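Researcher: Quick sanity check before group meeting.
Model: Go ahead. Protein one:
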Amino acid sequence: MKVAIAGAGSVGTSIASDLHDGGHEVLLIDKDHDLVARIRDSLDVTWVVADACEVASLDAAGLATVDVVVAATGDDEDNLVVSLLAKQEFAVPRVVARVNHPKNQWLFTESWGVDVSVSTPQLLTALVEEAVSVGSLVRLLRFEGGTAHLVEVTLADDSPAAETSLADLGVPREATVVAVVREDRLIVPRGDTRLAAGDEVLVLVTADAEDDVRRLLVGS
């Protein structure tokens, strides 16, 4: 997989390093000549010193050949511009954008070319809620401009789903149970998988079906 990352700050370089170690081809773009000069020898990726908000720069960098673009700068406006250009001008299949300020989260949608947005404060909040909440539906990640979410529910003792198989649960077609974690053991869900109180249930669900999933797993 070929990935282009806009922004060579701590976030961008960390992502680039992990992807490179995973065997992916990485293109790292930043307009700060001094920054690139200081760190380029420490990271064996393809470096491009250019403004990722300019079409000509992205074209010269070969953005039309990448599979994924990660807009990882420290400026939300820049990340939105990079995302929009990547999607509309270069038809990049997958665009992931960093949200620096939670108040700007609503802008990071499909209309701006964003397939997946990642807000660190919101992600940390979700992880805290996931760790301490029982009997509540917690949103972990948002996909496809907000039309789908990865949610988690730790089943309470009185959950209507407890002691019920997935086949009998009646999960709506717009939702899929993707994993069940029971006592630190991952269970790949099947139709005959019987849920139990204390299970952590991960569900990929559209916004329209979220309330139905909440009723099934949490209750009214």
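Researcher: Fine. The other one?
Model: Protein two, sequence then structure:
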Amino acid sequence: MGSTIANPIIPGYHPDPSICRVGDNFYIVNSSNEYAPGIPIHHSRDLVHWRQIGHCLTRPAQLPLTRAACSHGIFAPTIRHHDGRFVVVTTNTTSGGNILVTASDPRGPWSDPLPLAQEGIDPSLLFDDDGAVYLTTTNARELLQSRIDLASGRILDGPRPIWAGTGGRYLEGPHLFHVDGRYVLIAAEGGTEYGHYVICARAPTPWGPFEAAPHNPILSHRDHPRHPIQGVGHADLVQLGDGSWWAVCLGFRPQNEWHHLGRETCLAPVVWKHGWPHIHDRTLGEGLSSPALPAHPWPTPPVRDDFTGETLDPWWTFLRTAALPTWRLGEPPGILRLLGAATTLDDEDHVAWVGRRQQHLVCRVAASLDVTPRREGELAGICLLQNARHHIVVAIALRGGERRVFVRRRIGDLAVVTHEAPLPPGPAVLSIAASPLLYRFSCVGSDGRAIDLGSAETRSLSKEVAGGFTGVMIGMYATGSGVASGVPADFDWFEYAGA
């Protein structure tokens, strides 16, 4: 107890957080867009230290993301706990619309999706005291609400428009709460950019009429340009066992006007005054005291993954869903093998890629790779991925009939090899060293010779340059570039060390 909150509490691309408490345990889910498995879920005992325990959408039937466009796919889940079961609602913007899944254990398995007929995105649920279940969504102009049957997803009443917000653009992220006899709405406006903010309203019934809070916005950094976290919004609330309240929200950390890690999950205290929630001083603050809970840090994940387990750790993810597998674990033992597909990172399709979120502004990534390209166009390596039009690859390939290591940068419609060098046969270690403003690339071949492969500015992968709703992902990658059989790329280990 007595420690301070280190925002973000879940760093890296973890937007649109939703939270629930079950006894002494807390769970957060986040958007996952075109990545699979879908909806990462984190667990905490103290609201400050979090560890990922799995995903809510793990099976192809739950997550149809074939050829999902960049920054589409899974939007803004909400997690609640009711009658001994976890319930998550979300929107698959690529296929399926609003859906609901349930589980008795947050680690899964989660049920097949139950379709919800209500239009809009960013669905949320309120389990009211009288047993009624309310579903709230947004069409970006107004909030829509219905009363539903949880077992079937059938709409029993509605949907009806209940609130149009305070006049800002892109009304989103609604959550409805029943607190001390009033129905309190939390939502966001301003777009998920620097002008993002959180608003609040309340009503005597779940249908309204809703009255806007006199102190709106209840959370905003628009007037705090020097705060290290910007674009705060899309909040959800949770009540602790001692009666206190806390908010989770998204925010991003700009570096000289650009941010590349994506929107991250943050925490702030909430106080109720005269029936209204107040989030600190309308900001996340700095150096805030942590919740009055026993500190419960989790063991630090190992820097190196030797790929010796039967399954991959939960923080590993893939691009979209595939009809055919593009990777194998344990064949041969202790190796993650990528089977280079015909698709490349330039395609909005499934790719032979296994990656994880960049969660630190300063970090080091390295991987041991053994690959023998057989023809021009086959390559394998590690990469920094923002989307199909903005990524950087450090790879091994045949170029001019010679095995070479090179850096290829794709920035919009420009794709260029910036550095390359000959590479002897055998395993090589590819490395990326990240600082807030710069990535540096290098390689060590089987002969022990270190090769400097230059650098690139992090802003080239920022939202301000690349657009979209995601953040930088760091992964292992292989492609046959049109060759159906592909090239097997054997990764002996992968390291991620954040500072």
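Researcher: One line on it for the slide.
Model: The domain at 18-279 is CATH 2.115.10.20 (Tachylectin-2; Chain A).
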